[in-house]
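Build the 3D complex.
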Amino acid sequence: MVRKPTSKETARKPNMREAILAAAEELFAINGFNAVSVRDIAQAAGANPGSVTYHFKTKDGLLLEIYRRHCGPMNLRRSELLAAARRVRDLQDRLEAVVRAYVVPAFTSGSDLAGGGARFTRLRAVMSAEGNEVARKIIAQTFDDTSHAFIDAIHESLPHIPRTDIVWRSHFLLGALYYSLVTPDRVSRLSRGEADGGDAASAIEQLVQATVASFQAPPLDHAAPARRRPVVSSKT
Amino acid sequence: MVRKPTSKETARKPNMREAILAAAEELFAINGFNAVSVRDIAQAAGANPGSVTYHFKTKDGLLLEIYRRHCGPMNLRRSELLAAARRVRDLQDRLEAVVRAYVVPAFTSGSDLAGGGARFTRLRAVMSAEGNEVARKIIAQTFDDTSHAFIDAIHESLPHIPRTDIVWRSHFLLGALYYSLVTPDRVSRLSRGEADGGDAASAIEQLVQATVASFQAPPLDHAAPARRRPVVSSKT
DNA sequence: TGATCTTTTGTACGATAGTACAAATCACAT
DNA sequence: ATGTGATTTGTACTATCGTACAAAAGATCA
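Done.
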C-alpha cells in the first residue's frame, strides 16, 4: 500500500481546500470581491459553505490565502527573469528584457499553478479597482520591492531619464497590463475582430513593444516646455 | 421677487436629486458598486433611503443616471477637441493633439460638472473592473464610437502602423489612464514623494508623452521578428 | 475494533441588503 | 388659505449576507 503523507498535513482525496481556492480565485477575478458570496464559491467548488469557514475562517482569510499562494512564485520568477535581463549587454536589448521580465510572469504562471498567472493578475487588477483593504496591505508590502527593483533596472538602462518619469511610465505599464486582462474583449471589438484581446502572446508582445517605446520617450520634467507649442485651443 | 423655475421641473431648494447623484458618484468611484449600499448613499447625501428609490427607482437606475449625466458632455468635449486636433498640420503635433484630446476630458470635466471628469472616469474604471452589467451596456454603445474616431484619427497620423497595433496601444492608453485615477497614491509611493500621483496636470503630461511615444513605436505585426533594432532614439 | 483527530455537513443567527409603500411634509398656483 | 401635486420620511418586508457551531462522516493508528 502506498502511503506517503503524514496525517498532519493531508487533506481529502479530492482536495477540497484547493478546489475552494481555485473557485474563489476565478469568481473574484471576474466579478470582484463584494459581488461574490461565500455560498457562490462553495457551490462552484462543489463544497459546503461551512467548509469555507473551516479552511479559511473568513472571506477575507480566503482572499489572503489566494494572495499568499501566488505572490511568492510570481515574484520569484520575476526576480529570476530580472536577474537574467540585467546581464544583457546591449542597453537597448536590456531594456526590452527587463520590461519582458516584468510583463511575462503576470500573464503566465510562475510555478505549479498552470495558466493561473493571468487569472491572479486579473484578480489583483480588480481588487485594486475596488480598493480592497486586504489586497492593499499585501500589495504594498509584497509588490513594492519588486516594483522598485524594476524601476531601478529600467533607470539603469535609461540613465538620462529622471526617475520620476520612469515611475510614471511603469505605472502606466501596470495599468495597461491590468486593463488588458480585465477587458480583453474590448480589443477584439475595437479591432473589428482583427485582433484577439484574449491572446496572451499578442498582448505581451504589443505591451512590451509599446512600453519600451514609452520608456524611451524624452523626459519632460526638465521645466523647458518651449519645444512644443500649446496645441489645444477649442474652448470659447 | 425672483421667479425663474416652473413648477414642473423644479426640485427642492437644496436639490436632493443632485446631492444623491453626487454622493453616489463619489462612493461608487471609490468603493465600487457592490460595496456601497443605498443607505450609504442616502446618508452621504443627507437624504432618506426612500428618496433614492423615489428619484431613481433602483440602484441600477441611479448608476444609469450617473452615466447619462456625464457621457454626453464628455463625448461632446472630446469631439470638439478631436476636431481641433485634426486640423493641426504637422503630423507629429497632430498626433500629440489627438492623444491630448482623448486624455484631457477624462481628467477634467466636460461641462457644468466642476472637476467631475476625473471622478466619473474613475467610476468608469471601477465599473469596468467589476464587470458591471449596466456600465458594460452603456460603454459599448456610447464610447465605442468615440474610441473608433480616435483610433481613426491616430491612424491618420501614423499611416504606416497597422490598425491592429493602434487598437492595442490605445487600449493600453485607456488602461494607464484608468489606473492613474484609481491608485494615484502608488505613483507618490514608488517615486518616494518626488511625484504627486494625484496631480492631474502631471498625470496628463506624463501620459500624453508616454503614449505618443508608444504610438510611434515600430509596428510588430510584420510576420518575421528576427533581431530587430528599434529606430527610436532620443539623442538630438 | 475502538479511540482520536480531521474534515464535511446542516442549520441557524444576527446584520444588512434592495425595494415597496403609506403617511407626512413641502412649494406653489389659485 | 387652501387645494394639489411633488417630494421626503418612516417603516416594513423579503432575501441574502458572513459566520458560528454542533453533529455526522471519514480517516488514522494503537
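Chain B touches chain A through 75 residues (CB under 8 Å).
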